[in-house]
Write a structure and sequence with these properties.
Four copies of one chain form a homotetramer.
Chain A (H helix, E strand, L loop, with lengths): L16 E2 L5 E2 L14 E2 L4 H5 L12 E4 L5 E2 L7 E6 L7 H15 L4 E5 L15 E2 L2 H4 L19 H11 L3 E6 L1 H17 L4 E6 L15 H20 L4 E7 L6 H10 L4 E3 L13 H12 L1 E7 L24 H15 L5 E5 L4 H4 L4 H19 L2 E2 L1 E6 L2 E6 H5 L10 H10 L9
Helix pairs in contact in A: 2-11, 4-5, 6-7, 7-13
Organism (chains A, B, C, D): Pseudodesulfovibrio mercurii
GO cellular component, one term (chains A, B, C, D): cytoplasm
Catalytic activity (chains A, B, C, D): beta-D-fructose 6-phosphate + ATP = beta-D-fructose 1,6-bisphosphate + ADP + H(+); beta-D-fructose 6-phosphate + diphosphate = beta-D-fructose 1,6-bisphosphate + phosphate + H(+)
Chain lengths: 442, 442, 442, 442
């Protein structure tokens, strides 16, 4: 019986900090303001709601604060300057988030200025010499039709003191940081430095991850688009596999520690026979190993499609020992290993398998957001502006149980989300692929 | 102050009926079975969870039963015959649902036969002479790459006695009905007739609506795809509007009683200036009316894009008095009225406006499902099979608060979902379009 | 035996005028210049090449001048100002042509200024008050990713004197006119006025038509893209037709006098059963008429897809008597007539046909150009600049027999291209649809 | 001054062989038959048509025979059996060609049987055990919606005696061979073997090459589709390049000996800065080398997009010495070399360039054909049937100067088509990229 991955850890506190009391009437013209006692239950299954029936202890209910406009805001819009920065790798929807922030700040709150910090946190460092961009509604008007980020991005942290110096120098009141868990951790240090200096600067995070592996962010923006694009590559692999005798199509997709793209695109295509993810270790050789299962499939059906997440099977490879500027360990190439092993396996039997390998790589993250992600990103950006204007800080905007919520940065940076290999979700993948429940020799 | 639409009515009972006790061990090989006391809270805001703090009454919690496989099932798979029928208008994803049902029944439960009833409920009527199709895994293998339904569809009810006669004659144990609220009401009468006859036949519904207007189905399958397609038409309207002096692009989209497609595609495009929906009545003339607002926009910016749901502004038109076979009243043509009024309005001022009208009509519902809908439909189909095999009946499969659930048919057919015009969602549309909060003269 | 449409009329003269002798060395750095005696044979079939074997007369060979850079140019690039105008209805690729002209003029010839005239010929008229746009390489850099024209367009002629006044006032040396046959006729009057005044201004035309009906332009730019988009609508009609009992899908596409879009998209889809075009008159009633053929198809196969060009069957309708600003007679609605007749025809037999009508209208002309058209438009724009810089005037750029050529404006405006209904091309359409060779009762 | 590549060699003979005299009246119902003396001039420039004006020698005109139906055919349709085989690597449009052959044979000529040979020439070899497929109109009806080939394919030659044995055994009258130049050479040996045995079997070739490098095939089917798909990958590279400081996007595309995909997709994207092809050798180092040019671009604009054909710069690499089953030499990896050199070049200057490498590989050849290729493939298939039925053999179907023609196999297999680096076409690429005319030192 294999071990399951645990779910996201229950947050201890979901309270959101503020830079000060909100006293100014919100100028936005219409709609309902979020009511003070409104809150979104985090865990909605009956057991958590009702608590242990045998215990006398009242069940403890944990809530997230709903996102949305408040009737009182902290910052005086006419004197507020905002700044936006995009960090880490590209992801579909970055321009949509930027656009939504600018539109909401300028049109709803009439904020006079939104600055764009170029090339990630490096853009705060004077020595780098990157200009700051004035993000006007007209400038951002059509950027959502392009992939990538109009601001540029870069990896790696920067000194929080340098960042806060820059914020002070530029008179920024609200900083919107779009980035991965590394960026959210950097954001927390910026918040601490701001607090230390006693400044009234809000920092609002917008969690970004092509791997969909951030806790309580479900799914992350751009994920749907990247799955759609990965599915196209898989479709190609299927065509190649069925177009040759002993045809095998193999596709490597992103997914360092979590196999969401691999699993979701396998579900979407319905033509995948093996989905290999980091959360589900496997053996290559042995009676129950991957090659045995592939051998069985090939002899039964004559072709196979394999989708492998880049982080799958890393235990089978020598560690590369290298890391990128964000501190991500450079992965060893599981696809190369599998390719070699597969061809050898069939070669020994005198069978010349035709293996076609496709690595869509950056194609899946550089496309513009699809309609679904476009709308999602708009809401994230709008809600980030509402949160910032209300004086909230140290939080991220997310969607949970179908509602937009505020989550403390500390909650989303504690660990990473994984596919639970005991879940119905993973079972659906196994059903769809028809691969063995485990390819581990006990 | 305009009236808001109320939210979906709170269900009175969420209990699911069964045709008998489930006593057979579930043969599916892996994954966790749904535990008996698991349940999904329907309303997850703090007030409902905690109840009125001033009252001593314990808050009442309403749950939906989670979808998924049970450890015991009712039907003996080796003796089970399933049937699938698709009813009403087309919708992206129908073939995906059919495929998922067949794959889950045949591969997971080893059910020997799944029948396809052709052309909707008419397919049950011997006089119509439609053959029944044997839906094998090989037959359905690639149907998800095509739009529409491989079974064909038709509108209108049929005598439940005739339907149950046919089910008896064909020895069907589980009937999967894919259709709109009319179909779900028909399903309820079939359930009643089955019960009256004391038969062991389960009926599982899969709610379908291009308009996304079914209660507790959020969103309905295919909606995402249709929005994506509608967005393409709107993009064309934007190009036309900006390509001519005094250019106006107008797009009519589906949405009889609810403007979800109009609103969602407006959000997705970010280039719409007026979004007209059934839920938000407007005047054409008068100081605050639509023409005044359009006039202001045109004189300020020189062009405008209008998206109008087919059901918008019906109070401005003489009722057509006709209805289709499903009982849907035939709508009067709001787009034709608007076109006439707009050209007259500017004509009187000596301005020759260039109005380009686009009606994507059936294009948006006949496309194949996108990746997102494809996955959604797969899960709906799989869960329908789990529900049916467990002996449940009279229910529909839906997703609520991010989880797949069982909902009694009576709950989803009570009224229709509407856009709440006081919600943050509608406010986001208004922000995105920049149209007045109301275009009603008091 | 029905009459065939004749081919494009043989041009009398293919000589291109110039504003003066080209004496300046061409500054472009690389590539081969077009040699003086190079020429492209217009009619390449053996009979034309060899002439009548029985006659002693030497065969007369007609050539088009090849497009491309000349070693000598007329205009001194450093003192040259260009202008671009887009006229008439939208068409995929307009922005690509504009971009290519600007890039070639600015980068290859180092022309200091390219002006954009807004909203068609109206942009030359001072009373209209449209600003002139400075088209820099940076401004046009990404416009090809959008449909439509960044300059705007309008219909209708303007006084050539007013246009030449404006060209003189702005010091324009080369005017690039992108438009249909009406625009090319207007261009000819501008050329005449320039000549009358003895000015050194070149006018180069780029023929545009969504209907692909200009002589010696084969195909026109954007045609491929519009066919691709029309095909999508037809695919939808096919899905609808096969998704209902007695299902009929009908799509109306552009094509006022020529059915190229209808025919080409029918060939592309391979799922069309009737393709109705202006060149092939048909009867609705009678033994051989359309309804009889449709009746036969429906009873044999149960569904049908009809593609009808907007200009088809106009003889069956009362003339509308109206015309648009370009002088195009407003067509009567053949689709509405067909719909009515079809439903009546089957209704009389007690059959309730399900007819789904799709009019993609402006969607097919407002999309961005596909890869193929993008390249085509680039070459058209580049060659237009080469032609203009060499001092040529009164010509259009086209592709003939696979090569880019110069054609006198008079040649392309003489009559319109039609589908030859005796050609192998039309036969391929008939084969693909399976419709009768004629639906005319003798 | 660098050397140009020569154009395709002038064919010595363009006469098409037949298996015997065509005496049977063609049964197809409509359209014009090709007239006996019709012919398409091969070289249409004035000099070839007129001949040397100084010489008294009459110019020699070379013609291709036009494709199309003849009034007399050789095979009696009711007794004719056809066979289709697809060989070599996949290419968009294979299924469209198969479909068109089946439809034309069965519907136009009422041929009773079209056989599908599976997995290329290997399918003729009894030892391989591949079943022959009966290709009915119903079987092929929707195959054009899928990429790849429904018949499967394989590489490598087979003994022509074995192939002809199989044709005799199966009573095949006409064999349609779809494949690259290797396949066309194999076809020629099959034709020779048939002739040697005195059999009445026609062999008609349909030239296929993803690289577009077959003489007198312009362009090859599927090329347009693959360019469209490659353009998508390049767009991603552009997004990545502009999204990072010192960003470089590099895309490798197919093109073993000819850089058509690289050049065409660079033209299509307009965002490529370096296009490296086999026909244009370059140095990496040195004053005029690639790195110097890249360095200049990077310092001027901050980013660059590079498209490299897989066969470019092979002289810079050690030969791999390996070959695949078709005899294609395995190329060394130019992209890996460039990546290493680029990072080192900037690394030495203390600049950390961000190089994102994308290899779309098989994605670009496994997609379904676009509308344009779909129509092209239909005509190729139809004309192949006309040619075969008329008793012609040893020919291929192609399009030349805009007309469909018959070309002897020997003409298309003599050498391969290359990009002429002195042509206006290549100059347009250089203009579009802005790269130096040559990156060769001296």
């Amino acid at each position: 019986m294999k071990a399951c991955n645990s779910e996201s850890p229950t947050p201890k506190s979901t309270e959101i900090s503020t830079v000060g009391p909100a006293k100014i009437a919100n100028p936005i013209a219409f709609g309902r303001f979020v009511e003070e006692d409104d809150a979104v239950l985090v865990n909605i299954s009956r057991r958590t709601v009702e608590g242990n029936p045998k215990s006398r202890k009242k069940p403890e209910h944990i809530y997230f604060e709903p996102a949305g406009p408040r009737d009182k805001i902290y910052y005086d819009p006419s004197k507020t300057k905002c700044a936006v920065v995009t960090c880490g790798g590209l992801c579909p929807g970055l321009n949509d988030v930027i656009r939504a922030i600018v539109m909401a700040a300028c049109h709803e709150y009439k904020v006079p200025s939104v600055l764009g910090i170029q090339y990630g946190l490096a853009g705060f460092v004077p020595e780098q010499g990157y200009d700051v961009v004035e993000l006007t509604p007209s400038f951002v008007s059509r950027i959502h039709e392009f992939g990538g980020t109009v601001l540029g991005s870069s990896r790696g942290p920067q000194d929080p003191e340098v960042i806060v110096d820059a914020l002070e120098r530029m008179n920024v009141s609200i900083l919107f940081m779009i980035g991965g868990d590394g960026t959210m951790r950097a954001a927390a240090t910026v918040v601490a430095e701001i607090e230390k200096r006693g400044l009234s600067i809000s920092v609002v995070g917008l969690p970004k991850t092509i791997d969909n592996d951030i806790n309580y962010v479900s799914p992350s923006f751009g994920f749907d688009t990247s799955v759609e694009t990965a599915a196209m590559a898989i479709k190609g692999a299927h065509v190649e596999a069925t177009g040759a005798p002993w045809g095998i199509g193999m596709v490597k997709v992103m997914g360092r520690d979590a196999g969401f793209i691999a699993a979701q695109s396998a579900l979407s295509c319905q033509e995948v026979n093996f989905c290999l993810i980091p959360e589900d270790p496997f053996d290559i050789h042995g009676e129950k190993g991957f090659l045995a299962a592939l051998d069985e499939r090939m002899k039964r059906r004559g072709n196979a499609v394999i989708v492998v997440a880049e982080g799958a099977g890393q235990d089978l490879l020598a560690a590369s020992g290298k890391a990128d500027a964000s501190g991500n360990v450079q992965l060893s190439d599981i696809a190369a290993l599998l390719k070699k092993e597969i061809l050898e396996h069939f070669g020994k039997q005198g069978i010349e398998a035709t293996l076609k390998y496709i690595d869509p790589s950056y194609i899946i993250r550089s496309v513009p957001a699809n309609a679904n992600d476009r709308i999602y990103c708009s809401f994230l950006g709008i809600h980030a502006v509402h949160a910032g204007m209300s004086g909230r800080t140290g939080l991220v905007i997310s969607r949970w149980n179908g509602r937009y919520v505020h989550i403390p940065m500390a909650v989303v940076t504690r660990g990473k989300k994984r596919i639970n290999t005991c879940s119905n979700y993973w079972r659906a993948v196994l059903e769809s692929t028809g691969q063995p429940v485990t390819m581990k020799n006990d």
